[in-house]
Design goal:
D-amino Acid Aminotransferase, Chain A, domain 2; ten-stranded mixed beta sheet; 28% helix; globular; 2 domains
Length: 279
């Protein structure tokens, strides 16, 4: 837990952090967020996070101009104040405070909330683990490409995974895979690495973006296309990516073993190369 947080130009103790009850982020999930990973007290992939943050605030017409230099200073201050070595920085920007009404007023002043949390990452070392995932219907709203806090469908999916002793929920629409409750999904077939294209059906993951460059640098074949549940279950390797999961192997999907329940060679290679790149 953070000892110190940042809210609207003030550093506060965690226990003293509060927002107004008519904040639109609180009442309507009218807010966006980013999760930035920190390894060895270093902020990672920051440019990609700011690019996506600008996209999200623009798509929702927030009265907010993203100032990368200003926010980065706050991130660094919180990492130092909280003595964070490995973990995440959570940034949330709400549309602002307004008497409860669905239609929002123009020129509301956004609320800025930032804090840190310690986290143990699944790193590609001797303790590197593969996990189980389940499949679950994708019932999210129609714009998951915008990183909003409207995550109730993700919560239901993730809770079902937890009930079944799984790490992640792979979301499906009809017979096809979109992404997962809190990550992007990849499959391996021979030397082909396949993932869903970054359109309005999925979130353009930051780790996904970084990994694409690594895949190309290794002269592996990257294919961005939709794939089916059947292709998922018959693939040679499955892994997920996110700021919190990095590259995490999925060795079981529902009751099916992937690669005989073992971590695949390509997955581990990509995890190692990502780790080298980000540190």
């Amino acid at each position: 837990m953070s000892k110190y947080v940042y809210i609207n130009n003030k550093y506060l103790k965690f226990k003293d952090a509060k927002i107004h009850i008519e904040d639109r982020g609180f009442q309507f999930s009218d807010s966006v967020y980013e999760v930035i990973k920190v390894l060895n007290s270093k902020l990672l992939d920051i440019e990609f996070h700011f690019s996506r943050l600008k996209y999200s605030t623009k798509e929702l017409n927030f009265n907010y101009k993203v100032n990368q230099t200003f926010l980065t200073k706050i991130f660094i201050n919180l990492v130092n104040k909280n003595k964070l070595k490995n973990g995440i920085i959570y940034l949330q920007i709400t549309r602002g405070i307004q008497p409860r009404e669905h239609a929002y007023k123009k020129y509301l002043k956004p609320n800025i909330i930032i804090y840190t949390t310690k986290k143990k990452f699944n790193l590609p070392d001797k303790n590197y683990k593969g996990y189980k995932a389940i499949t679950y219907p994708d019932i999210r709203w129609g714009r998951p490409d915008i990183k909003t806090t409207s995550l109730l469908a993700n919560i239901l999916a993730a809770t079902e995974a937890s009930k079944q002793g799984a790490y992640e929920t792979i979301l499906t629409k009809g017979k096809k895979v979109t992404e997962a409750a809190h990550s992007n999904v990849w499959i391996v077939k021979g030397t082909k690495i396949i993932t869903h294209p970054a359109n309005k059906e999925i979130l353009k993951g930051v780790t996904r973006t970084v990994l694409k460059k690594i895949i190309r640098s290794l002269n592996l074949e990257l294919i961005e296309k939709e794939f089916s549940i059947k292709e998922l279950l018959k693939s040679e390797e499955v892994f997920i990516t996110s700021s919190g999961s990095l590259v995490t192997p999925i060795t079981h999907v529902d009751k099916i073993k992937i690669n005989n329940g073992k971590i695949g060679a390509i997955t581990k290679s990509l995890a190692l190369n990502l780790y080298k790149a980000i540190i």
